[in-house]
Amino acid sequence: MTNSYLDLTDMFCGCGGSSQGAQDAGVEVKLAMNHWDRAIESHNTNFPGAEHVCADVYSTDPRRYRSTTLLWASPECTNHANAKGQKRAPQQASLLEDSILDPSAIRSRATMWDVPRFAEYHNYKAIIVENVVEARQWRLWDAWLHAMRSLDYDYKILYLNSMFFGVPQSRDRLYAVFWKKGTRAPDLDFRPPAHCPNCDKVVYSIQSWKKPNKPWGRYDGGGQRRQYYYRCPTCAEIVHPGTSPALTVIDWADTGIRIGDRKQPLKPRTLERIQRGLDKYGGQYLVVDTAYSHAKNQRTWPADQPMSTQTTRQTKGLAVPPSSVIVFRREADGQSPADPLTTITAGAINHGLARMPFFVLAYTPGYSKPVNQSLSTVTPYDHHQLIQRIPFLASYYQGNNPQAVDQPMPVLTTLERHALVQPETVAIEDCYFRMLKPMEIKLGMGLGWDYAVLGTKREQVRQCGQAVTPPPATWIFNRITPVL
């Protein structure tokens, strides 16, 4: 993209997801600050032209550093969130109970004040602050906003989920966008395209809060915990913007080790979550979160959905159901891939590997494909079918499509023409399992293949979990730059 001639200070830059988002919008990164030397090393590798400062920001003097047009700040969020699955501790010490003040928690929340401290001296034209949604519950939130207004900034608070920006991860974040009073307000209404079933067309949806008097919260709480929806602007129907699935970033050449063959057994809670996923999703590939052993929710998702929020730890695993070989000949059964293949003939393509529970079956031999691949050539005739790993009826009549068992069956004749196809029960010990790799986690954050994240595996995962997903940052910068 053409450079906008706007430059940026990236405060609490981490390995540089926010800087990548700025660069993709044509903003030049001039200054990057972080307290962790490994993150600075990664950032410097990707942005060698920027000045790098490895220091605790709260202990620095703003007058020591160059001024830039824009400031992006991602203050430490651990102690704003329900970190490690625990409830946030009260911020007021009790005189009637034994309470231990956590200095690191106090210091973590104090990093929010570095934003007005630097803004007072550098007078940035615009500022973006990214944090977890729970930062809104901080007791000093209103005082912090008042400090920013006192520095002559107008603002808008955004609540966005990265999965609607092409990132294969459900990651809810708060973005506080500030601009100088007197500057035209940027257009910060995010309206993702979605299909409206009522209007039967693609619309630019509108964010709609479940509680209008409480316009903040998460999208991906699921069910009753979801605090906002997207609706059709015409009929107000709830719609679902498109997302990218986790399967787009997974290395499918590595399915892991058979659970029954593992030297170190999986923990009972992990096995329980895998079994629940198999029961619920019918043998699909699963992404399993092994953290938070006390959590009561399922914490297992099919790989055709965005993965859950990436943390600073390597906690997500891939569970792969056993494969089976399908023989496309009459009176031939499926077989295990561990067994020798049946006779391979020269007449046609007669064997296929069934791994996904959903696949598209074409009448042309050999053209069945999983749904994560492009269709074979679509002709004017109805030559494609969707096959699922759920019970269905198969008919021997030419032209009769498979049909779900909850539908009326086709016409019964005097001959046996209908068959019940029942998928086999998947045994958990026959599934394969492995943890997601740092490369997959990096791609799941929206960082590119060639983006450098340095250090050990643990350090790479930690940097990714702390990073900003670049696409939402790019969208915000693209909305700000026209008014500056």
Report on this model:
- Residues 88-108, 324-339 and 343-389 have low confidence and may be disordered.
- The radius of gyration is 26 Å and the shape is globular.
- It has helices at residues 17-24, 37-46, 103-110, 114-122, 141-150, 268-281, 438-444, 457-466, 470-480, and strands at 7-11, 28-34, 51-54, 70-73, 126-131, 153-161, 172-180, 193-196, 201-204, 206-209, 228-231, 238-239, 257-258, 286-289, 300-302, 316-320, 324-327, 351-354, 358-362, 369-370, 384-388, 392-395, 403-404, 418-421, 432-435.
- Among the domains are: 7-92 and 101-187 and 456-483, Rossmann fold; 193-241, no CATH class; 252-322 and 427-436, no CATH class.
- The two termini are 17 Å apart.
- The protein is an alpha+beta fold and 484 residues long.
- The strands form seven sheets. The chain has a seven-stranded mixed β-sheet with strand order 3-2-1-4-5-7-6, sandwiched between helices. A five-stranded antiparallel β-sheet has the order 13-25-16-14-15, with helices on one face. Strands 10-11-12 form a three-stranded antiparallel β-sheet, with no helix packed on it.
